[in-house]
Amino acid sequence: MKSIIYFVSEDWYFCSHRLPIARKALADGFKVIVITRINKHGDIIKSEGFELEPIEIKRGGVNLVSEFKTLFALYSCYKKYNPDIVHHVALKPVIYGTLVARFIGSIKIVNAMAGLGFVFISNKKRVKLLRFFIHRLFRFLFNNKNGQLILQNKDDLEYFLKNKLVKKDRVKIIRGSGVDINKFIPVEECIGIPIVMLASRMLWDKGVGEFIEAAKILKQEGVEARFVLVGKVDSENPASISNSQLNEWNELGTVEWWGERSNMYEVLAQAHIVCLPSYREGLPKVLLEAASCGKPIIATDVPGCREIVHDGENGVLVPLKDSNSLADAIKELVNNPNKRERMGENGRRLVEREFSEEIVAFQTSRVYRKFLV
Description:
- By secondary structure, the protein is an alpha/beta fold.
- It has helices spanning 11-17, 19-27, 42-47, 64-81, 91-104, 118-121, 125-142, 154-162, 208-220, 243-252, 264-269, 285-292, 305-308, 323-334, 337-354, 357-372; strands at 3-10, 31-37, 51-54, 85-89, 108-112, 147-151, 171-173, 195-199, 226-230, 256-257, 273-276, 297-300, 315-318.
- Helix 4 packs across helix 5 (91-104), helix 5 (91-104) packs parallel to helix 7 (125-142) and helix 9 crosses helix 14 (323-334).
């Protein structure tokens, strides 16, 4: 039996973004092993028929002792299972997993970058220096005959090719992680004051600050709407927003902070408009889910977001870090229920046509099959 290892930092991320792909691999006859840090989703992973190997890995910060422990634990897992393919997701698993797999030498490597995050966005001097070294490391990791890189949008592809981080024949675009179109379905808009929602991890670079400013502008103009933040604090991310700041906004009535929610279909069903004024994305799953639910979506005109938001058709694209333009776009949709309905219908059709879980899982399985020919 052929075997495949998925190495992902967090168990919740594997379940939310990679579970359908792993299910497809299992259905195709692979033995599936998941290596991840266990929080709350270990039983869910095992219930799918996958083998589970817990690992201690920190996404943020660098402690040499703990990092070497992670590398050694990863090496032990790869030697134990001797997989045919390893599939790494996000920056640190990509780096560590590829180093280990290349050291062993016989493993086919699939690396999935889910977007270029803080390290590639920040202009701080120390981050720029880190980016310089990561570029050099990527050139070593990605240019080998046993490797395939998966990116989620054409802007990231252009970045990797322009900086000579990977050769063109070793990179492929698979647009996002897909959405369950049978679960995220359109429903009638809730009656009452329109809810404008930003659902994401609570990070500054998701545009939360701009969303807050837009809410203040619209409240001063007397626009009747509820502004809602949904998502958890991610303390391991350098761009994390503190609990105290979120609670302060909530107490002042600037926004409602609903915290982390697992039932995203029910949450999105309550929204009238879904926003993500992010600084850069791979292809944001929350916008896919919102569009699948028939919601109009507003996002910044940046890589990743413009893959799913077709300006004027299923939503609105606004300039980066522009709270006034964001406020104008929200106001226009709050005041035009017919436009919301039309955009929602267009978004649903787009997701059905291009972004379903089945499409993404099939495209990924083709990468695996190509390796095994």
